[in-house]
Every structure is written in structure tokens, then in C-alpha cells.
Design brief:
By secondary structure, the chain is an alpha+beta fold. Helices cover about 30% and strands about 35% of the residues. The protein starts with 10 loop residues before the first helix and ends in an 8-residue tail after the last strand.
């Protein structure tokens, strides 16, 4: 048989455990505070970047001849549109960018007629782009043989 387990704590052990719990509680409070501050700062950066772009994300359009994206008039930043062939391995077949007006890319002839259009934006005052909107679609009669 195993020896009996002593359930009543020894006074010295109780004080040691209280000390450890105080340290853990303080550490936990610091971790929670740092996490909350980080989330607040990151959330503020993301919301300011998206608010400076537009309230609604306009989607690009795609037909058998062109992919287009109309930049919202209230937007501040550089918009980048890429056209990719699908399925994988995808290949970039078009790239254009601008700050106003309509971005247009010619749709090439492919065997699958399936494409992905991605629009990214570099908000004014920023240096990196963020995804804005996109679509995946098949277009009719894009193969040269038709």
C-alpha cells in the first residue's frame, strides 16, 4: 500500500503557495494589460487604414475581354489590380495600378477560362498594401479556338 497522503497543509507550504500565487496573479495582469494595449493599437491602425480607403469595398468585374475595377472617389491611396489564371499553378497575367478612375486589364486567351482578380490598396501615408477586394470567376468563350 502507498503511504497516507497528508491533507492538512504545513504552515510554511501555505506561505510559499501564497507567494507563488501573488507572483502569478501579477504576471497575469501584466500579460493581459500588454495584450489589451497591443490589440488596441493594432485595431486602431487597421481601422484607420480601412477608413481612409472607403466605407464599402467595391468588387472588380470580369468578362471575356477585360477585368475592371473602379476606384471609389472618396478613396485615398494607390490601388493595385492583379489578374491570375486558375487552377493552380496560377500565373499572373496582368498588373496595373492607379489612384483614381478605372483600372483595366485585358483578359488573355486560356484553356480553362478561369481567373482570379485581386485588388490591393496602399492607403495614403502607408508603405505596404492590404487586400481590398477580389473575385474568382470563369468567363465564357475566352479560348482562342472558339
Amino acid at each position: 500500500m502507498s503511504p497516507a497522503v497528508r491533507l492538512a497543509p504545513v504552515e510554511g507550504n501555505v506561505n510559499n503557495w501564497r507567494w507563488i500565487l501573488r507572483i502569478l496573479t501579477r504576471f497575469t495582469k501584466v500579460v493581459v494589460l500588454v495584450a489589451a494595449l497591443s490589440a488596441t493599437m493594432l485595431g486602431g491602425w487597421i481601422s484607420s487604414a480601412s477608413a481612409s480607403v472607403a466605407n464599402h469595398n467595391v468588387k472588380p468585374t470580369l468578362n471575356s475581354q477585360v477585368a475592371t475595377f473602379t476606384i471609389p472617389q472618396s478613396a485615398k491611396g494607390t490601388f493595385i489590380m492583379n489578374l491570375w489564371t486558375l487552377p493552380a499553378p496560377s500565373k499572373e497575367v496582368g498588373h496595373t495600378e492607379g489612384t483614381s478612375g478605372t483600372l483595366v486589364l485585358k483578359v488573355p486567351f486560356t484553356h480553362t477560362c478561369k481567373f482570379q482578380v485581386d485588388v490591393r490598396v496602399i492607403p495614403a501615408g502607408m508603405h505596404t498594401s492590404v487586400f481590398y477586394s477580389g473575385l474568382i470567376a470563369s468567363v465564357p468563350c475566352c479560348f482562342k479556338g472558339y
